[in-house]
Amino acid sequence: MNTAEFIPKSLDKLVEKASFTWQTPSNIALVKYWGKSNPQIPKNASISFTLDNCHTITTIDFERREKSNEVDFDLFFEGKPKEEFKPKIRAFFKRIEQYCPYLFDYKLTINSENSFPHSSGIASSASGMAAIAMCLMSLEAEINADLSKEFINKKASFLARLGSGSASRSIEGPIVVWGKHPEIKGGSDLFGVKFSKDIHSNFKNYQDTILLVDKGEKQVSSTVGHNLMINHPYAENRFNQANDNLEKMASILQNGDLDTFINLVESEALTLHAMMMTSNPYFILMKPNTLEIINKIWEFRQETNSKVCFTLDAGANVHVLYPEKEKESVVQFIDNQLSKFCQKNHYICDQVGLGAKRL
Ligand code: PMV
C-alpha cells in the first residue's frame, strides 16, 4: 500500500496566517461499506451518491506558532465551544500527523456548522471530516504551490478516510467509489475516486428525501458495528456479494435500468441491516416506523409504477430515492403517507450534488 506520496517533501514556505472555508456534503451509499481492517481499510468496495443540501461548512483559521508535539486546536460548533467533539478530532489529527506534519507549526481554530439539524440522526462525520480535510489541503496548497487539483482531492479523501471511512466519499460528486475493484480504474482502498463512466440521464439530479424516523443517538456506533464483522459467520460472503453488486451497479448507472437499480439498492440496505441482526452481539437499528415506511413504498410502487425506492444508513432513518421527473408525485406521497412516521413529521429534501465547494 503506497502512502508515501501523501507525505509532503518540503515544508520550506510555511505561511504566517491563513483561513479557509469549505462546504462539504454528506453521501448515501448504494453499495454499502460494512467491515474494515486497520487503518480504515474497507473489506469491500462501496459506491455512493454525493448529496447536496445536507452538508457541513467549516472554517479553519491557521496561525503560526512555535512548533509543538501535538496539534493545537480550538473547536467551535455552531458558534459555541464544543469540548465533547474534541477527542474524536484529536484522534483524527493523531492519525494524520505524519501526512500533515506542518500542523505542528500552527494553532488551529475550527468553526463548524451543519445544514441539517444537529440531532437528526444524519451522520455528520462524513461531511465533517471531509470539510476539515479540505481546509488542511488548502493550507498545504499554500505551502506547496505545485499541488494539482487532482492530488488535492485525492489526498483530502485519503485524510478524510482516516477520520471516518465513508468520509472518503464526500469530496467529489456526483458518484464516488471507495475501495479497490477490478471494474474501477484507479480505485483504491486509500481514497475515494469519482465514478468516471458516463452516467445515464435517468440518474441526473436523482432525488433523496431523508425521512427522520429517529433523531436520537444510535445505540450502537458504526465503529462497534464494523468490528462485529470480524468473525461474523456471513462476512466473507457479504464482502464478495458487495463487490459483485458494485460491478452490477456500475453497469446500471450507465444503462439507466431503474428496475434493476431499485432491486439492488433495496437489497443492499436490507443486507446491511441483516449483518447487524446476525452479529454477535446482535442489534437492530430499524424502528417500527422504518418498516411502516418500507411497506408503504412497496405498496405505492405496486399501485403507481413509480420508480421510487429506499435505502438505509446505519440508523432508523429512511432515504427515499427517486428520479427527478417524479419529484412532484413522490413528494406528495411522502407528505400524505410517509411524513406521519417521522418525528415531528420532519423530512429533508435533497438530491445528488457535485462535492466539496470552497466558500
Ligand atoms: O464511515 P463509517 O465508519 O461511519 O461507516 C458508515 C457505514 C454505512 O454508512 C452504514 C455504509 C456506508 O457505506 O456509508
What is the CATH class name of the largest domain? Alpha Beta
Might you state the CATH topology name of the largest domain? Ribosomal Protein S5, domain 2
Q: What is the approximate shape?
A: globular
Helix content: 25-40%
Descriptive report:
With 359 residues, this protein is α+β, with helices and mostly antiparallel strands. It has 2 domains: 12-198, 2-Layer Sandwich (Ribosomal Protein S5, domain 2); 206-351, Alpha-Beta Plaits, CATH 3.30.70.890. The chain is 34% helix and 23% strand. The chain contains 8 helices and 14 strands. It has helices at residues 86-96, 125-143, 149-163, 222-227, 235-255, 258-277, 288-304, 327-338; strands spanning 17-31, 36-37, 41-42, 46-64, 72-77, 80-81, 106-114, 175-178, 192-194, 207-211, 309-312, 318-322, 347-351, 357-358. Strands 1, 4, 5, 6, 7, 8, 9 and 14 form an 8-stranded mixed sheet that branches. Strand 2 and strand 3 form a beta hairpin. Helix 2 crosses helix 3 and helix 5 (235-255) packs antiparallel against helix 6. The longest helix is centred in the C-terminal third of the chain and has 21 residues, at 235-255. The protein is globular and about 65 Å long. The structure holds (3R)-3-hydroxy-3-methyl-5-(phosphonooxy)pentanoic acid.
